[in-house]
Model the fold of this input.
Amino acid sequence: MPRKSKIPCGDGQVVQYNTIKARLYPTEVQAELFENTFGCCRYIWNHMLADQQRFYLETDKHFIPTPAKYKKEAPFLKEVDNQALIQEHNKLSQAFRVFFKDPSHFGYPNFKRKKTDRDSFTACNHVFESGPTIYITKDGIRMTKAGIVRAKFPRRPRNGWKLRRITVEKTRSGKYYCYILYECCVKAPETVIPMAETTLGLKYSMPHFYVADNGAMADAPHWLKQSQEKLAKVQRQLNRMQPGSQNYQEAVQKYRELHEHIANQRRDFIHKESRRIANAWDAVCVRGDSMSEISQLVKRGNALEAGFGTFRECLRYKLARQGKPLIVVDRYTPTTRTCAVCGLVRDDEVSYRHRSWRCPKCGTVHNREVNAAKNVKAQGLDQYFGYQEWRESA
Ligand SMILES: [Zn+2]
Done:
């Protein structure tokens, strides 16, 4: 959904969004209200979706009723924040919009199940004359219905940040978090024109996370591997236990906490790594590989397999904030099969089992992945400057 800006930014300024994630410590009453809100959001989503399907079959028209329609038959909906229900309507409308636009990429909206879908709700902030509906205090956050919920903030918003909306989430291990979205105006960055020396080519790599054209690699930090091994150990213990027993329950909890811990470690690694690259280089070239296809190829157990798509997105916005481009090369570019020195394109794919290969034409011995990263960079720069010329001559 296009996020309409409510704050008019000055000349030469652009809107920037920032999110602060905070741990929440709700009281028992507040936790119960959260549980009810999660449930009501699922309820309203599923009912709106079912009605949409029915209308579509009967009239051939796309229409989603608003949450107000359901309140008579389900009075418990009135007990939770109405904003959260309205957001479900927005989210469902958005899910259909992207589905109609590109059905091959975005799936048809699904019904939500308590077992598999994450517990969360979102509410927008409304600023009335009497004050905003959502705001943060020294050690808490004020929400509609719940009142002030105790919270621990890793950082505070800067001056001029406007609180737009909040998403409350409960993890599988039972912890509550909120994501607070802020909007602000910042000076538009000046466009940086990259040069070959200041551009980095990256290739997704299964064993190393990525390999760069200059030979640099990012291996998963050892602590991530350690957690991964611990997780495998708990998994093995679980397999030997009697489901339903006290020990089993405790092990399940341990497993979930470890799982979340790994997700946090992974996110931390991805943010730091993308920050480092975005600061050090003027442009980054990557191939537009489909991450879901890659993860199907990759065996389970690689802690970072799912992270590369996120990494790419982090790079994109961290570069963009400095006026630098992320250049995405077509995913069908034969980067692995091409010799970066003489340009020979092999007929066959170089198997990922081979670390290196010798070019039959020029005789260069290539590291398979570094060679591919070099090609990603060359192709990216061609693409970028070709487009620039075209834009200047148009
Ligand atoms: Zn060659």
In short: The first helix runs from residue 28 to 59. The pocket of zinc ion is lined by residues 339, 341-342, 344, 359, 361-362, 364 (CB under 6 Å).
